[in-house]
Predict the 3D structure of the following.
Amino acid sequence: MGNAIWDSKYIYDKNKKLSEEYIVINGNEKNGFLNKFSSDGRLIEHLTFSSNKLSTFHYTNDKQGNWIKLINYEQGIPILYVERKIEYFK
């Protein structure tokens, strides 16, 4: 079997929810990324080490707590806007 290509480190909060994911590719710390998650499990930050670019994710929820709008910012500039409609059955 060959060398590991992907090294992962996971950090959990006091409620045993994933809060950070740290990935190193090919043993090179400059070649990887860091993801941070909110307490409800949503991706809120993605840092790419090779380019030192930070992406942040901002969510708007409906009354049931599901996200209906997502804005993805890269280096503080909005690059993606997603809006979704959820139909709830009564």
About this structure: The first strand starts at residue 6 and ends at 12.
